[in-house]
Amino acid sequence: MFDSALLLAAAFVAGALNAVAGGGSFLTLPALVFTGVPPVVANATGTVALLPGYIAGAWGFREDTAPPPGLSMRLLVVLSLIGGAAGAALLLITPDATFRRVVPWLLLAATALFAFGPQLRSMLAGGKPSTAKATVGVLAVAAYGGYFNGGLGILLLALFGLLGQTQLNAMNGLKNWVSALLTAIAVVIYAAGGVVQWPQALMMMVAATAGGYGGARVARRIPAPWLRGGIVVTGLVMAGLFFWRQ
């Protein structure tokens, strides 16, 4: 009963956190490991559990979602699926220790990009968005998300900001749609590789869905400066925790 309660609580909060700022995997992964699930399997199982939360969060932001300059929604979908599949395949053949050393640095860089996004946009103002650069950026972040979901939201928000997206709710809605797409294709690959514990994943899906939709609807009512500050703090805390775990 305690294990079930822990997993449900972690999934609910993770779903809400992913809908707003990302980082839900840092709750689901340790919760699953604490209940006896091996780390690699916990990573895949937690990602599966958060998929409906991403979908619910995207639906919660449905009025605000719009693609960033330089990309169409159709191209964004294709890039998300390709990148997510590549990252998931990489998870099945790469040792976790290698990626754990890189994760905190990626989180710090993404948080800094998001925090100083408005200033960077002002410095780079005047040029047209580059579809080629946007394509490479989305592919790279989608591959990251397919491999390890932690910090995916921070990276996506940073990327959309640099591509010229200015409305935070639109960025959040788009972040959830991209997360849902790349996670969906990753789940197929995880399942084919036999690294998902379905009883835990199915139970956590219910809680993550409720948290994802509730978090998205609440976030739409939060003033943008407060929401931006909360996202930056989330990124810094996550990076610090990853450094501490090393």
From TrEMBL:
Tagged with keyword Cell membrane: yes
Membrane topology annotation: Multi-pass membrane protein
Keywords: Cell membrane, Membrane, Transmembrane, Transmembrane helix, Transport
GO annotations of cellular component type: plasma membrane
Keyword Transmembrane: yes
Source superkingdom: Bacteria
Regions that span the bilayer: 40-61, 73-93, 105-124, 136-164, 176-196, 226-244
Annotated compartments: Cell membrane
A Pfam entry, by short name: TauE
Family: Belongs to the 4-toluene sulfonate uptake permease (TSUP) (TC 2.A.102) family.
Protein name (record): Probable membrane transporter protein
Source species of the chain: Acidovorax temperans
